[in-house]
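Course assignment 3, question 2. Fill in each field.
Student: A.L.
Task: Predict the tertiary structure for the chain below.
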Amino acid sequence: MIKFDVNMILSLAAACLGFFALLAVLVMSFSMRRWRARCLAVETSVAAMRREIEVLASISLRTGRRVKRIEQEYSGVADRVGLVELRGAAASFDEAIDSARRGTDPARLTQQFGLSRVEADLVTRLHGRRKTA
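Answer field:
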């Protein structure tokens, strides 16, 4: 029969405790490896996303500049469309032609009939009174 004294029980408890500590260290080691692999994958994904965001920001900036340029180039279109709608179709040109034949200058045609400066000049040149020298 084996006699269990305090020293043997303490030795056995220490051995069990050591075994479980070693087992815990091994489990933690494997867990840490998995966490490191996951962290590396996340860091790689974040770096790739950062590059994609920089590309998108660059595209967005260029698009914004283009939109701003287009808005500046075509800012007068709404005003011109409004003028065209106000003056009606050919009737206002006919009236402007009649007025030019009576000697109205291009500035007055622009005001009176909503013609652009170029249109008023053209109507005056084609239909205005001829200056005699």
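Instructor remarks: The chain has a mean pLDDT of 87. The chain has five helices and no strands.
Grade: pending
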